[in-house]
């Protein structure tokens, strides 16, 4: 079943919690309905942590303290009484079972990300890319591991908007190209958890050269956020196997597509003309068939 917003946020931030905070998070996830009637003192004792640790935990989640956290959790239970836990995968699952369970994690992450993805930050990200393109500033894309695929995918989307960007899959070439950044250029970093040191090395180079930094990463990754001018937070809940970042890839792709469409809408008439012209060229070369109306 679908977790409510509070539980989804805890689930997605688990990689960034301290050992004591993880004890709190695990207990709350497993006894969420019970927590709605527990005092600060009682919950702290049950989790073998101090009350100040519990308060810091709730503030890290974005609440003013335990009282607001509990009120939010209780309110969501009233509005969604059947809220429960996502179902983990196991070795006995059929391919259809796996599909359905992956879908549940993806849907949960989409809904949770809608609360961490701030409208103001998203608008700033779109405007920043648009202004960089309009002013002929360099747009540099980066990401490690699976996130590099997101960077490469975004480069293709920008190309379709006639926006040039720089991306190298080779790490040495990427570092070398990063040293060419100038003041007010734009560095865009894709990172699932903000755990790759290479991202921080390139962000430091970009900042030192006066470039702006836009990061797309998991909610709770404060280290990456501190070094960025704009941050778009995802709230990804991966399945229990964690063999690959399936859900993260879907969520990052949705954010990319949102930015792509928002940029296209800024010059829709010209964009529509370019798409039509491209299709006609492809058809003339025999690569596509244009159906008659």
UniProtKB/TrEMBL annotation:
The keyword Transcription regulation applies. Gene3D superfamilies: Glucose-6-phosphate isomerase like protein, domain 1 (3.40.50.10490), Winged helix-like DNA-binding domain superfamily/Winged helix DNA-binding domain (1.10.10.10). One of its GO terms (biological process) is carbohydrate derivative metabolic process. Transmembrane segments: none annotated. GO terms for molecular function: carbohydrate derivative binding; DNA binding; DNA-binding transcription factor activity. Keywords: DNA-binding, Transcription, Transcription regulation. SUPFAM superfamilies: Homeodomain-like, SIS domain. The keyword Transcription regulation applies. This is MurR/RpiR family transcriptional regulator. It comes from Faecalicoccus pleomorphus.
């Amino acid at each position: 079943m679908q977790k409510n917003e509070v539980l989804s946020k805890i689930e997605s931030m688990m990689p960034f919690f301290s050992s004591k905070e993880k004890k709190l998070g695990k207990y709350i996830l497993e006894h969420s309905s019970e927590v709605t009637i527990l005092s600060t003192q009682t919950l702290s004792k049950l989790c073998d942590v101090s009350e100040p640790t519990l308060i810091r935990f709730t503030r890290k989640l974005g609440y003013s303290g335990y009282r607001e956290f509990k009120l939010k959790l209780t309110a969501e239970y009233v509005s969604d009484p059947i809220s429960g836990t996502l179902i983990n995968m196991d070795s006995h699952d059929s391919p259809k079972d796996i599909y359905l369970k992956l879908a549940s994690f993806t849907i949960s992450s989409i809904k949770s990300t809608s609360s961490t993805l701030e409208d103001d930050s998203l608008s700033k990200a779109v405007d920043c890319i648009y202004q960089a393109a309009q002013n002929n500033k360099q747009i540099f894309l980066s990401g490690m591991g699976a996130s590099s695929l997101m960077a490469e995918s975004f480069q293709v989307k920008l190309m379709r908007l006639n926006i040039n960007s720089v991306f190298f899959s080779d790490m040495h070439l990427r570092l070398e190209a990063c040293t060419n950044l100038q003041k007010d250029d734009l560095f865009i970093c894709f990172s699932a958890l903000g755990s790759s040191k290479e991202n921080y090395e390139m962000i430091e180079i970009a900042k030192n050269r006066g470039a702006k930094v836009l990061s797309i990463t998991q909610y709770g990754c404060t280290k990456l956020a501190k070094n960025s001018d704009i941050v778009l937070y995802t709230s990804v809940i991966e399945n229990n196997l964690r063999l690959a970042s399936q859900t993260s890839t879907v969520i990052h792709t949705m954010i990319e597509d949102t930015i792509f469409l928002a940029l296209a809408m800024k010059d829709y008439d010209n964009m529509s003309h370019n798409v039509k012209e491209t299709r006609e060229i492809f058809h003339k070369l025999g690569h596509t068939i244009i159906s008659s109306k």
